[in-house]
Amino acid sequence: MRIISHRALREFIGFHPQAEAALQGWRRVIEKNHFAHWAALKSVFNTVDKVGELAVFDIGGNKYRLIAHLRFEAQIVYIKAVLTHRDYDKGDWRT
């Protein structure tokens, strides 16, 4: 799959450098695989949840959340936000 864009990752890592290894690991797995549907994604990322039209990935042992819109037919991942678990719980990302 192809990630559009890496900006959210870079910005989050800028503020949370300890998250870099976990986020780059997630990125490598996404970019090296073809996920035809939700079940295929869930088989690799067993902690991913579907929230409406968005996918919410637990990253770094549940320390971080990556929120993305996935287009399986086009093999594209649009990153909406990368948040700490605490910021995710505030719910501001839903708007």
TL;DR?
The protein has 95 residues and is of the alpha+beta class. It has helices spanning 7-15, 20-32, 38-44, 85-90; strands at 2-4, 49-51, 54-59, 64-71, 76-84.
Outline the structure in words.
- With 95 residues, the chain is of the alpha+beta class.
- It has a single domain (2-94), classed as YaeB-like fold (2-Layer Sandwich).
- 37% of the residues lie in helices and 31% in strands.
- The protein has helices at 7-15, 20-32, 38-44, 85-90; strands spanning 2-4, 49-51, 54-59, 64-71, 76-84.
- A 5-stranded mixed sheet has the order 1-5-4-3-2.
- The chain is globular and about 30 Å long.
- It starts with a strand and ends in a 5-residue tail after the last helix.
- The model has no long low-confidence stretch (mean pLDDT 93).
SSE map:
Elements: E1 2-4, H1 7-15, H2 20-32, H3 38-44, E2 49-51, E3 54-59, E4 64-71, E5 76-84, H4 85-90
Parallel strand pairs: 1-5
Antiparallel strand pairs: 2-3, 3-4, 4-5
